[in-house]
Amino acid sequence: MLTASGLSKSYGGRALFEDASLQINRGDRIGLIGANGAGKSTLFSLILKEAAPDEGTVALERNLTIGFLPQESAPSGDETVLELATNVSTAMEEAQRHMREHTEEDPLHHEAAARFAELDGHSLQVKAKRILSGLAFREGDVNKPARTLSGGWIMRAHLARLLVMEPDILMLDEPTNHLDLESLGWFQSYLSKYAGAILAISHDREFLNAICVGILEIRNRKLNRYRGNYDTYLAQKAAREEQQWAAYKNQQREIAELQRFIDRFRAKASKASQAQDRIKQLDRMERIEPPERDEATVHFSFPQPKRSGQRVITLEGVRQAYGSHLVYERLDLEVERGQRSVLVGPNGAGKSTLLKILAGMLPLEAGTVTPGHNLSIGYFAQHRTEMLDVKRTVLAEAMETETPVPEQNVRTILGSFLFRGDDVFKPVGVLSGGEKSRLALVKLLLNPPNLLLLDEPTTHLDMPSIDALIGALKQYEGTLLFVSHDVHFIRALASSVLHISAGKLTPYAGDYQYYLDKSGSLSERAALVAPGDYRPEAGVTASAPRVKMGLKEIKEQRRAEAEARKAANKLIRDAQARLKAAEEEITGLESRQRELVSELETSGGRAFELNRELATLQERLSNVMEEWERISASLPDVESEKLD
Hints:
6-stranded mixed β-sheet; 19 helices; Rossmann fold; globular; alpha/beta
């Protein structure tokens, strides 16, 4: 499908590629990795023909289609989310634009509608709605103008468009940045069955492990291909480096022996010819380069916070709701000094809400929040970027802390979070959202409070930066509560787990593996959003039940819950069966619609009969589409009842 041969590319005198080669075949699912600035985005530009190589070629199969999702800043206009998701070609985009801009009485609208039908627009809409639903769009969202959504949701709509398009090669730049865990699970499952090839830049280890059958690493100006997922790549890379080191050392010993002979006997007449032979042997020798070592994680010392009391913060009887949606009722929680807890549970369960309550970001409807002695709180979320001074440089903003930090230390820390060289002199105002997020994280670490509340801190960080953050937080002597979808990050830092579901907190007094073992979860990532049916462990009082029940009442409650789950499962199966039947009927009706449109063009005297059948068919198609939408919209509600 795609072959790159002998690629060389330099920018500003710095070589990114030298004689690099690449082959992508149908069905390949490849993760593209490499240090920041290694050339990942440049390789994408070369494949997309947005840039030309200095040497070499990029050859694409005839009529090959490529779909590209940038990391951020995909465009949106007046089209609705559904229209954006179905804009799979210029012709389709124009047809939908004309339908939007002209009233139904306008002949131009009818022409555009006919063109839309001819392009199989109705089938695309059905497909797009399924995909948008998988990416967590609600039924009411799909007809909203895309420009009214946040940047993250616009990116999801563009991702849906690519999945509807089904290009031969799907090129994704950090696609998981804008997905929550449940939609990420759906997305990974979808990609695992994708018929085309996938080339994805990602710093998400779990994502790479879930979808990849190959890893492409940019290293030492070459493209190095490994079979398997990310974990397999790490093992293969270690073995390959060990072999290369052994070969390099052996060759160095051989070179040293040859050089010693040359130095000893070059001037001796009886050995001069042998010395010359060894000189020629050295000249002909193809030198083995030592393996390029990964950049070591930058080690530095952060300022430590003042010591808090043993009881850091306490919640009692807290009630919190968003409109009619009740998140917490009579919530109790006590956080102790030195605690390092990850918050897990279904989307919408209230993980981020709990962090905001602890941070004092939300006014309580009821209950109390009691801070402990000497408490200082730091809350990290996207809103922190609004607190940056856009007129300062990156370096000046980072150094603006209560506790002075030497400039060299600040620059070292900035470098580990991807602000290197002259980047530190950029004005904050020109930084991207991801860069501002990283800068806010640096500022938080340079002046840490004794209670850190972090909401998805690894978003926008590459793997070395995540490891640098882990190193910093391992040094941190305060109390840490965080939400994350990065299992590597969680395993490195969490010493306890707090599961949140249906307004209840269930603590697990052990690390993430302990939580997995106790909860019986089937996968590390699924466990992060598992609804849970767990009882608090003995001796733990967080959100303890207010009412005690006897054995008989407990058995009756469990029997009732089992019957409710059985009934909910039946509702889901019935709804899914009706949904499938509607989809099959829609496919059949649209196929017949295309046949009728084709027959009309050469119908002769049967035009009246064909038009009548076409009108009847379109009315039926409209009714079935409405039925599909109604069933599709009801499924999330039915499934949520099952989860509750």
